[in-house]
């Protein structure tokens, strides 16, 4: 298949994928298509499935490309196996799903262009909370609406997560530090990638998107590890 044919196959599950993205993944060694005598890329069906695995691992698990490549290399050498790539969900996790299934936001990636917009009523229904609870989340900056008053799907997951934490006696006002820490991380990433985004070259923007995605994934990993280490210190384990 040509790179255009591959793009057409992937777009159904990954609407934000572009030819530049596929070329970037090739440059990073995630996929190695063949070449025609005239130099055009030729992708096999196995290459497409490999790309699906990479894109799903980024979107659903926020894994850095280095980690994804290590998994693929292990599978190639027979020392491991890449999990089957799940199809993207058509809606958010059901309201009555167990807390462990809520997981991370189901956005296509950290730099998605077009996002589903939810009204306040839809947010309340999806998150299983009432209007006063939402007002409290907004008061402490945990949930924010856009300029037109709509919410993105991440707001639903934030609301559900906070709701689950309240069962342990943690109130939204206790979580302001999380909002402040996230804003500081965003500010740091912004300083790094803003100069790249200012370039008019489309390839530069694509590269900046990848840098944001990689840094965000590393940031999530670092945050998780630091919290786990702190909990071990508290428990003495």
Automatic annotation (TrEMBL):
InterPro entries: DNA-bd_dom_put_sf, MerR-type_HTH_dom, MerR_fam. It comes from the Bacteria. GO terms for molecular function: DNA binding; DNA-binding transcription factor activity. Gene3D superfamilies: 1.10.1660.10. Transmembrane segments: none annotated. Residues 1-74 form the HTH merR-type domain. PROSITE patterns: HTH_MERR_2. Signal peptide: none annotated. Keywords: DNA-binding. This is MerR family transcriptional regulator. It comes from Amycolatopsis balhimycina DSM 5908. The lineage of its organism: Bacteria, Bacillati, Actinomycetota, Actinomycetes, Pseudonocardiales.
